## 1
Amino acid sequence: MSRVLVTGASGFIGRALVPALLTAGYSVRAAARHLPPPFAPPVEVAIHGDLGAGVEWRPLMAEVDFIVHLAGIAHTGSGVAAARYDLVNHLATAALAKAARAARVKRVVFVSTIRAQTGPRSDYVLTEDDSPRPTDPYGRSKLAAEVALERARVDFAVLRPVLVYGPGVKGNLHALARLAALPVPLPFGAFTNRRSVLNVHNLVAAIAHVLRHPASGGETYVVADLEPVSLADIVTALRAGLGRAPRLLKTPPGLIRLGLAMLGRSRNWDQLDGQLIVDPSKLIGAGWRPELDTAVGLAAMARE
């Protein structure tokens, strides 16, 4: 039975990935930063510590066939220095890649981010053929980690997911789900910009696919659900999951932007009004299938 080391296993993606790998027939060693991740046997749990302080990866890789590297700073935001992003996301991944090569690990799957390729919005549909142009320390650190994997000459596959959603998600989507749960009209009916999103179970399927698919070695894939959605679509799906009508008001987006500025939340504007569409045709051509429809997945998230 092949053993997979999952770093960052206690996070949002890891909590969905570990049981899926067990179901697929893998033995799993689940590692987290501090407390052991919340899994019961037969999952083997471990602690990898703070990636920014340096990690001794070799003991964690004992008798490991594959690695899925999820650990890192998984968001942009104020209060995180560029040097911290570089330590945790880039240099720790470079050390992991070097150790994986020495341990003869068969493949490292690195879950990067679409922000390694672009800023928070794009005026054209993104594919893997586009030159990476990250716009912040988070994206640049993830791109540097991708480069480090390639330079380490270890077998690897890189996934660049868009915004991931599902039960237990945090951040902006969690806040939006709480808004959608309120029994009041919401002012998002005029937001027609579209953004690609990704259900966590579709991402887990992508990870499992590139883990076992020989031709994925050395490849980079952007990952997204099939159909991009508008902000109005997202709120409509969330409220449908609660058995409610959309109740969306067509408030001019400029007024929303002004309100965010007055609240000191201007940085959220690109996530609301910006467009970012990703074409996952390359991964689909390699055999991956995003089985869960976006509207169905958002509705399920609202019910959790």
## 2
Amino acid sequence: MHDLEFEHLHVSAVDDTVNEVAWAADNVELTTVGIDIGSSTSHLMFARVHLQRLSTALSSRFVVVDRKILWQSPILLTPYRSDYTIDVDELAGFIGGCYSYAGIEREKVDSGAVILTGEALKRRNARAIADLFSEEAGKFVCASAGHHMECQMAAHGSGAIALSRGHTATLLNVDIGGGTTKFALIENGRILATCAIAVGGRLIVEDGDKGLTRVEPPVQEVAKSLGIELALGKPLSAADRKRIATRMARMVMGLIDLRQPNELARSLMVTETWPAGLANKAIDAMTFSGGVAEYLYKRESRCFGDLGSDLAEGLRHALAHRRDLPSVWDPGQGIRATVIGAAQFSVQISGNTIMIVDPDKLPLQNLPVLACDFALGDEIAPDAIASEVRSALSRADFEEGESPVALSFPWRGDPSHARLHAVASGICAALPRTIVEGMPLVLLIDGDVGKSLGRVILLEVAPRADVIAVDGVQLKAFDYVDIGSVIRVTNVVPIIIKSLLFT
């Protein structure tokens, strides 16, 4: 997989003529882990990620230039108890066994993510699962979830992003999992739009003579629309199973056409639908990932008592009878797409313009991010900055000074001393208890002013502040961050961005 749109170096070995210290100043190698706990299956993957400083002069930004899978686990059917909650103890044993089989020690893991996806998000103990694996899987591993985020991870991990960029093509990646189907529209390697619907292969599970052992609410809606009654302990006829799978396949096909969903499909959407104006968008090819894709590409033939093979057959039939559709490409990864994305695309690195007063206090974990929209005109009013910080605290229902938080904001305009001082004064005025009690004052800035702003705070505004000013970090709809320990020589820190969304 070679999907890089920027200049970079290939470093396979450092010979005797290369200064190893100089190489280390511009390169970082991290061992990462991705854990995917989904509606149907759970699995784990270890990877090694090589990040390199951009070739632009004096750049402090590091980007991924190489990714290598070190070990991947077998696929585990996500274990559920009789009350429909996920069995945390069995998952913990599975993860512990994976570390042993892979021969990787927990302390050797630098970064990664636990991803709760689809129906797993709805389990009553979802937060307990996230907390458990955040602690068990290594000190930088984060818990992360969210349908839009999973769409993006599947697009990356499946290989669809690489295909789109490599072929200068517009692709639609369709990731069909156990509880949801995620769509990502990709143009020249850039994701234009994502959406997801509660259609998946494991919304129903039937266990031989026991009849139906699992019936999820979304499939109940589909069955009701067909006049089919589903009940635990009762069998499902082959004809009714096919009718349900066919109706699900039609809803997926409607979204493949970039159409607005009908009433039933709209009720099953777990995100907003496609943005207006995409209906006539030309698509060069489609790619499929997720567990159901294994049946579509004929890499799997076994039946697990669910709708996986039936849904794949319904889609295969619909695709075969549509001459107007673009061709179908195999992106390379199916059921493991999300976990590959989790292991390889969840880390950012901030570079050499950071300010960290006390590096020994790192790492910091689970810092809530308060997104601020500062008015950064030519003249900046400190009172306005302070008011925005207080508003961000209020929106998040946080009491200032009770626990550390991270302020996130983009920097716009010149980094003049007057503008930096105004921002520093406003921030410190809004966080008096944080400063007095010696809590970390964490600033996450999209712009290269971290060190300058940190120095103004420390030397002129609040000398007692425990400043951690990290720049070059892009935050969007994420809620929590982990800030890793400083990586020596390069003087960078890994930033793990988390989105804990529990419905």
## 3
Amino acid sequence: MTVYITNIDDVEDLCHGFCIVNYGINMEIDPQQTSSVTFIADKPGVYWYFCTWFCHAMHMEMRGRMLVEPQNV
């Protein structure tokens, strides 16, 4: 699986982070930069992803969940 993240902020020092703890992913995305990470999502379950840089007042809202379903064998 490949995840692409774009930091659309125009403020030159407003970085964001992207982290999925259970998959060992933690990266920084500079303003106007697109970054990607490729990994094998092989552990069924629900995994939180979130911003790791305190960026602004809505920082705590910058999170979501990734659902990994078991493969049909």
